[in-house]
Task: inverse folding
């Protein structure tokens, strides 16, 4: 496990999860929903890339 | 604007995450001042580059871009886009040299490169100047901008929230040093971009979608005679001198925080903290790409949407134009508003934490250690560093509280150092530059700035304006002032260089051996017995990186505004240039082995 970068990865995942929830609950239009879900996906992906980054 | 429970929950959760990351790294930071200020020189390119762009993305940046776009349209952004030329220059000619120099701070470079009492004076002066007044004014400016945003979005209660935010930021920055700063910067940049993209999407929807926005902008442009979507300013019969200065002078002459000629400030600090010279180069390249390609379009879209929704902004005061950005937050749905507010806090925090860590490094490494207490333990220096970070934070907060108009002070700081860029670039590549050259450049630039403030109708300025008018330029006072400051400063420091003796040969030889610069080092290279040369590929890399940035920047813009064919052509050209750039990067021996 790459402990060095783990907190940063957790930070990105920690933002992505509420984004998914908020995107589902509070968006008003399809464009808003797509934007929020896409951004949440990017946060999940960046978190995974950081988690896998070489020390 | 009224925040609901979900908004508050997201904001509180964001604070828990970012502060948790900062505090996590506090153990590492306490080991030594190299860990505290340079993360033990172990940063990979993606971390240091993102930290650079996060620091440069402050809470006032979207407001400033909004003001520019509403006033001058998309083309107005050349006021800051021109710095991409200087940024790319730093990537290929300076980032690896900084890392090879292995100094702790930008100011310590003076001790490595120059000799004698003039060098000691210059180091002490710059440590105090950059560590206290320059840092405090930047701190105050950023904080005042954040106060304005908070007052628009929260009302006066928000200022208390901001004070808590500031206290928490200083708390984890003091504990965790640069490790905490760069680690939180990753998340803060992500959250800051998240908020700006969400706001852009909602703003464009409010303006009738992209199609509606484009149609309304065409009507507005036709009515006002100003093409808001043009990427290049209307040149007409006379070339605007401001555009000429932006393209050909500003990026190498003006010392602008985050875009210092040859690197400086927090950019240099992160290059010095890189794992290797190549990581320093890659990180600085990533910074420039993210800075010019990723950041601007959401702000530009929000600004254009604001212009359509509030057309009266066309004739508003500059402050009202900038305030359009936080005003758009009112259109967000509940829950999502919290995300955008958190993003503004993120932009603010990422700048503040870097400023206080950086100014602490100047005061400790370039003033306290060489001039106050030379031989103390690492533990002592780390403790003093932490105290200095707290001290600078308190002074900065005081500045923002006391000063009503930091903008004037900030503009003055910019003008004071408007002509020093050339000496900062040449000190790496010309052996003859000495400490007196820098002292002369700083003094001449400051003296000229003050002179032009006192006598804005000076005969020098009037004469130069007439001359430039005669050459067919459309002149303005700011652009003529910059040209005059650069001309006078360059003459003064070059004359001083030739009138004062060169630095001690042993000092120059040690620098040459360690940093291995190319350029004009004739006598020193002969002493060394080997001449280092700047790679020809560096020039190619510089040109290619500017091409990559330009094509991607414009290609993304074209796609956003539904210019599919042109946008795709730009992106393909950008991708081709990026491929060639990656090949070029591998052709250069960055480590100097």
Result:
């Amino acid at each position: 496990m790459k402990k060095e970068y783990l907190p940063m990865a957790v930070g990105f995942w920690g933002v992505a999860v509420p984004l998914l929830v908020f995107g589902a609950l509070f968006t008003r239009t399809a464009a808003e929903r797509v934007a929020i879900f896409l951004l949440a996906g990017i946060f999940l992906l960046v978190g995974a890339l950081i988690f896998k980054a070489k020390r | 604007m009224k925040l609901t429970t979900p908004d508050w929950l997201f904001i509180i959760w964001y604070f828990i995450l970012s502060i948790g990351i900062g505090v996590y790294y506090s153990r590492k930071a306490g080991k030594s001042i190299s860990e505290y200020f340079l993360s033990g020189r172990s940063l990979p390119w993606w971390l240091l580059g993102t930290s650079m762009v996060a620091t440069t993305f402050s809470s006032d940046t979207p407001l400033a871009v909004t003001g520019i776009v509403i006033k001058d349209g998309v083309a107005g952004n050349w006021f800051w886009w021109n710095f991409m030329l200087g940024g790319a220059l730093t990537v290929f000619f300076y980032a690896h040299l900084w890392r090879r120099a292995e100094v702790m701070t930008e100011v310590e470079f003076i001790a490595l490169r120059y000799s004698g009492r003039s060098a000691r004076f210059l180091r002490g002066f710059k440590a105090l100047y950059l560590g206290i007044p320059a840092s405090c004014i930047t701190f105050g400016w950023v904080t005042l901008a954040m106060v304005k945003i908070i007052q628009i979005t929260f009302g006066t209660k928000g200022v208390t929230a901001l004070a808590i935010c500031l206290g928490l930021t200083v708390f984890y920055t003091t504990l965790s040093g640069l490790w905490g700063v760069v680690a939180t910067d990753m998340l803060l940049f992500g959250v800051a971009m998240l908020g700006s993209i969400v706001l852009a999407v909602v703003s464009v929807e409010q303006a009738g979608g992209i199609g509606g926005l484009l149609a309304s902008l065409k009507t507005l442009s036709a009515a006002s005679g100003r093409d808001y979507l043009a990427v290049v300013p209307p040149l007409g019969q006379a070339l605007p001198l401001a555009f000429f200065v932006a393209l050909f002078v500003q990026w190498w002459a003006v010392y602008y925080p985050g875009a210092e000629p040859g690197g400086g400030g927090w950019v240099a600090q992160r290059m010095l903290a890189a794992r290797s010279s190549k990581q320093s180069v890659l990180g600085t390249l990533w910074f420039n790409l993210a800075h010019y390609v990723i950041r601007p379009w959401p702000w530009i879209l929000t600004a254009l949407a604001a212009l359509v929704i509030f057309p009266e902004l066309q004739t508003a005061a500059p402050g009202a134009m900038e305030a359009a950005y936080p005003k758009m937050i009112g259109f967000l749905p509940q829950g999502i508003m919290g995300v955008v507010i958190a993003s503004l806090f993120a932009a603010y925090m990422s700048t503040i934490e870097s400023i206080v860590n950086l100014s602490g490094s100047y005061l400790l490494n370039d003033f306290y250690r060489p001039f106050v207490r030379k031989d103390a333990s690492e533990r002592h220096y780390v403790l003093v560093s932490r105290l200095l970070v707290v001290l600078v934070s308190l002074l900065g907060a005081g500045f923002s509280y006391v000063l009503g108009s930091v903008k004037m002070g900030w503009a003055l700081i910019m003008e004071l150092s408007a002509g020093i860029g050339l000496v900062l670039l040449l000190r790496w590549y010309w052996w003859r530059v000495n400490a007196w050259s820098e002292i002369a450049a700083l003094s001449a630039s400051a003296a000229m700035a003050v002179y032009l403030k006192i006598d804005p109708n000076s005969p020098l300025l009037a004469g130069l304006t007439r001359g430039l008018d005669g050459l067919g330029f459309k002149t303005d006072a700011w652009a003529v002032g910059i040209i005059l400051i650069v001309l006078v400063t360059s003459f003064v420091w070059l004359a001083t260089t030739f009138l004062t003796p060169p630095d001690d040969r042993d000092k120059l030889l040690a620098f040459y051996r360690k940093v291995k610069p190319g350029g004009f080092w004739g006598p020193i290279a002969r002493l060394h017995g080997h001449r280092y040369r700047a790679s020809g590929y560096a020039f190619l890399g510089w040109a290619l990186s500017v091409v990559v940035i330009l094509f991607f920047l414009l290609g993304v813009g074209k796609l956003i505004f539904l210019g599919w064919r042109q946008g795709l052509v730009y992106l393909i050209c950008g991708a081709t240039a990026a491929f060639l750039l990656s090949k070029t990067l591998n052709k250069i021996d960055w480590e100097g082995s």
About this structure: Chain A touches chain B at residues 7-8, 10-12, 14-15, 18-19, 22, 25-29, 31-32, 35-36, 39, 43, 46, 50, 53-54 (CB under 8 Å).
